[in-house]
Fold this sequence. Notes:
The protein contains five helices and nine strands.
Amino acid sequence: MDQKNIDILKAGGVGIVPTDTIYGLVGSALSFPAVERISQIKNRTDGKGFIILISSIEDLNIFGIKPSDQAKIFMKKFWPGKVSIEFVSPLAQFDYLKKTGGTIAFRFPDKADLLILLKKTWPLVAPSANIEGLPPAKNIEEARKYFGDKVDFYEDEGDLVSEPSTLVKIDGDKIEVLRQGAVRVEEV
């Protein structure tokens, strides 16, 4: 990604980028205005929460997440990878990211150029590139049909065809599969 688009994200802008699964509508997870703008662009339902892309397990500290030993074992097995993990977040300052129930989902992707981007921008919210209720964009042309000039930039990587990430909730030592996706995870 060119420096101009990195600077846009760091300044609170939003864009369409290829993730490790599908195209995402991304913005800084640390910027309430960017997250609010993404919600409006997607016509997103309140209380749905976001998946946040992180560049390392240590990034969880930013959000006050302290995984249990059982969670750490699970994370080492599936991260980096196409598994998103929901944790209960204790910090009120991130309420704007939380799903109803107080959880935030994170994914540590296994994609070199995406990790480089995340190290430069810090964590990014990355919901799928679509209007809520419609199929995710498989390419930039479909994303442009959804969003036009409502986003600040588009990063093209051709067609991306993947299932969304598998979504797992970890609460203490309890691990629950909420959505089977790109990676098969059995109930633990």
